[in-house]
Every structure is written in structure tokens, then in C-alpha cells.
Specification:
transmembrane; single chain; 448 residues; globular
Length: 448
């Protein structure tokens, strides 16, 4: 039975179908970030700058964990897409059930670990003493919702394998509106601060996971989730981990490098932490454009590679890179030009805005450069080469950043000296992954 939500990736306009898949993915992540930004904005306006810093100081830690398991879900997306391209629907359904069990186990594992590591990690990051207790409580409440996050991420990855990105977006909109409303209820109505917005986020994540679960339960055909069939098949688990684990490790180590940088940010005090947190919202939105096209590229190429449409694979990479760079540049420039009123949505504190302006100039404005390594790296993952781009990206970006911060940290006199490492590492990594892409595809895209 043909799924009415599926996109035909093997035929038709590459640009049109890429946009149909990528834009909802980008919007989903942008909306998620906007709803997360509401946490920062609500406590910044209606609680205190300390509460805003408490929420912001947790961003690198949360991102570190979430990106690892989001990367892991990429394995499920690619394996199911490959089964579709090879017309192996029974195999696709088996992968679905294996990936769903993996999501549940991962979520509860992180719930437990999060309660243990919350305060020690924030101490390691040199979180300012005036916010550390508030930040710890926020982080522990957030980790209580990790099972919900994992179910939503893996469920969304499953739907993306057929090009269905609209329903996850719709579910996220519903959950996000609930999140914003609950933020206001807990902070204004119950006079809570960081803990109130954390609870609101957790409840909203629970709603989005229920909606994705309900969808898969009632889906027809190969994406039907039958709770009686839940279980792990070793061969599918190995395939998911072979592709997803390197992608997850890349996200994890990327985030570790950001955690190291966060420690350098914390050195400049709570105003810098708050300003850094405010600017992060805009650069995340810019990056999610690139991320959306990267995810679409992986799914698109997985199906076409399985169908041996190698010329279409090459054209997909070119088209996706042009879209990712162009659309991201448009958003980045717009944010930079409107930075004064946009930052005013988060705070009126002049010191906080000063630091936020610096980060926006050095990172948000130059975010299109991330497409240099993300798109060719996503293309390689689509054909099963997940480890190589991960290694190149980790060395070019993460290791370079950590070494730079470690060696130069003591000499930092200005915040700009911290953030300049981002665009430098993007350019170096991009050149390396592009060369890798041409080398690998020259061997892989060979007509028999």
C-alpha cells in the first residue's frame, strides 16, 4: 500500500523534492530552538539575569547528549531508506522495531546518568557560583524528559526515511506552543525560575513523543509499529550503529569542544554567559537550515545509491550544497542586520547585549560555512561511509578547538578571542571533507 506522505526520491525534480524534505526538518529544529529560546526569554524578562544564565549555561551540556542520540537515529533513517530504495519493505519494518527499542533504552539510560552527572559537570565548566544551584536543578529536570526526546527523535528519523517531514513538524508546533504557555504559567503564575521552564520543556517533550508514537502505531505498511514485535535484531542493530554511532560521536565530541569553550566563556562572568546564550539562539537557527538539507541529502542519497542512480546522487550533493549555503546566508545576514531589536527580545541589560553582539558577528553571520563539511559529509553517510567524515570533522573542528582553547585560554583578554576559532575550524574542516568526498565517490559511483 502506497503511503500518501511518502516522497518519490528516485524520480522528478531534485531541487523541489529536497526542499520538500529539508525545509520541514529545518523548521522543526528552528521551532524547537525558538521554543527553547522562550525558556531563556521568559526567565530573562520575568525572573532574573541569573536565571537566564542558569538556563544558558546548560545549553552545551544538553546539546552534547542530545546530539549524540540524534546522530544515532541517523543510522535508522539511512538503513530504512536504503531498504526502501532496494524494495525490501519487510526489512524496513524490522529496522523500525529495532530502532524504537534502542530509543527507549537510550532515553532511560540518559535519565539516570543525567541525575548523577548534573552538578559535577557544571562544576567542571566553572559555572558561576551565583547560578550553579539553579542550573543544576534545571539540568536534572530536563534529563527526566530524555525518554521522550529519544522517542521523538527516532520516530522522526523513521518518518524521514520516506520523506515525511511534515507530520513531525506539526507535532513539534503543538508541543512548542504548549511549552511556551507552560513557561508563562510556571514563571508568572507560580513564581518559579529556571526549574519552572525546565518542567515546561519536559512536559512538552512528553506530548511530542506521544504524538509520534501514536502516528507509528496507526501507520499502515512497512512503517507500522506493533508493540508486540518490539525487539532488537542484532544484524539491524549493527547496521544502525555502524552508521549512526560515528555520526553520534561526531555530535558528542563537537559538543564536548563546545563545553570546553563554554568554560572559557564562563571565565568572563554571568553577563557573558547570558549574552552568549542569547546569541546562540540565532546561530542555531542559521545552522538548522544546513542541518535540514544535510538530513534530506542523506535520505535522498541512501535511496538513490541503493537503486544505483549514481548520477542522481552526485547532482543531489551539488543541489543541496547550493541550497544550504544560499538559504543560510540569507538568514544569517538578516539576523546580523536586525541584531539590536532581536537581542532586545531576551534582555535589556547592556553588558549582556554587548557580549551577544560579539558572538553574532563572529559566528551567526558566518554560519553558512558549516555547509562546507556538513553536505559532503552527509552525502558520504548516505552511501554508508559514516566513519571517515566523522574522523575528518573531529580532527578539523573539535580537536583544533580544544587545542586552541587549552593553549591560549590563559591569554584571553577579550571574548572575541574565544569565538574566532569557530569560523577558522569550519574552513579547515570543510576543505578536508570536500577532498574526502571526491576521493570516496570516485570509487563508489562506478557503473557496472
Amino acid at each position: 500500500m502506497e503511503n500518501k506522505h511518502a516522497i518519490n526520491m528516485l524520480e522528478g525534480s531534485i531541487y523541489k523534492n529536497l526542499c520538500i524534505i529539508a525545509i520541514p526538518i529545518a523548521l522543526s529544529n528552528i521551532l524547537q530552538q525558538l521554543f527553547n529560546a522562550s525558556d531563556t526569554a521568559v526567565v530573562g524578562h520575568f525572573a532574573s539575569s541569573q536565571a537566564m544564565a542558569a538556563v544558558g549555561s546548560n545549553a552545551p551540556v544538553i546539546n552534547m547528549i542530545v546530539t549524540f542520540f540524534t546522530g544515532l537515529s541517523i543510522g535508522a533513517n539511512i538503513i530504512i531508506a536504503r531498504c526502501i530504495g532496494a524494495k525490501e519493505e519487510d526489512q524496513a519494518n524490522e529496522v523500525l522495531h529495532t530502532s524504537f527499542v534502542l530509543a527507549i533504552i537510550s532515553g532511560f539510560l540518559m535519565l539516570i546518568i543525567g541525575q548523577i552527572i548534573a552538578k559535577p559537570v557544571l562544576h567542571i565548566l566553572n559555572t558561576p557560583t551565583d547560578v550553579i544551584d539553579m542550573a543544576t536543578l534545571y539540568l536534572r529536570i530536563y534529563f527526566c524528559g530524555m525518554p521522550f526526546l529519544m522517542i521523538y527523535d527516532f520516530g522522526s528519523a523513521v518518518l524521514r526515511s520516506i520523506g515525511d517531514t511534515k507530520r513531525p513538524l506539526f507535532f513539534l508546533i503543538i508541543a512548542g506552543i504548549v511549552n511556551v504557555c507552560l513557561n508563562l504559567v510556571f514563571v508568572l503564575g507560580f513564581h518559579r525560575n529556571a526549574d519552572g521552564v525546565a518542567l515546561a520543556t519536559t512536559l512538552a517533550n512528553g506530548l511530542s513523543s506521544f504524538l509520534i508514537f501514536h502516528t507509528l502505531i496507526h501507520e499502515q505498511g512497512m512503517l507500522h509499529l506493533d508493540i508486540h514485535k518490539l525487539g532488537i535484531q542484532k544484524e539491524h542493530l549493527r547496521a544502525i550503529l555502524w552508521i549512526g554511532l560515528p555520526a553520534g560521536l561526531q555530535g558528542l565530541i563537537f559538543s564536548i569542544s563546545n563545553v570546553v569553550i563554554q568554560a572559557a566563556v564562563n571565565h568572563f562572568g554571568s553577563a557573558c554567559v547570558a549574552g552568549n546564550a542569547a546569541a546562540l539562539n540565532f546561530e542555531y537557527i542559521c545552522y538548522f537550515i544546513v542541518y535540514g538539507f544535510t538530513q534530506a541529502t542523506m535520505t535522498f542519497i541512501s535511496q538513490n545509491y541503493a537503486a544505483k542512480n549514481y548520477a542522481r546522487c552526485r547532482k543531489t550533493t551539488r543541489t543541496s550544497w547550493l541550497c544550504a549555503f544560499g538559504f543560510t546566508a540569507l538568514i544569517s545576514i538578516t539576523f546580523f542586520l536586525l541584531k539590536r531589536p532581536l537581542l532586545g527580545l531576551f534582555t535589556t541589560d547592556a553588558q549582556v547585549i554587548y557580549y551577544a553582539n560579539i558572538r553574532m558577528a563572529y559566528i551567526a553571520l558566518l554560519e553558512p560555512l558549516t555547509s562546507l563539511y556538513e553536505i559532503p559529509g552527509g552525502s558520504l553517510r548516505g552511501i554508508g561511509h559514516s566513519l571517515e567524515p566523522t574522523i575528518f570533522t573531529l580532527i578539523g573542528s573539535c580537536v583544533l578547538r580544544i587545542v586552541y582553547i587549552s593553549l591560549a585560554h590563559a591569554a584571553f583578554a577579550h571574548f572575541s578571542q574565544v569565538v574566532i576559532i569557530y569560523p577558522i575550524s569550519w574552513i579547515i574542516t570543510g576543505l578536508a571533507v570536500i577532498l574526502l568526498y571526491f576521493k570516496v565517490t570516485k570509487e563508489e559511483y562506478v557503473e557496472m
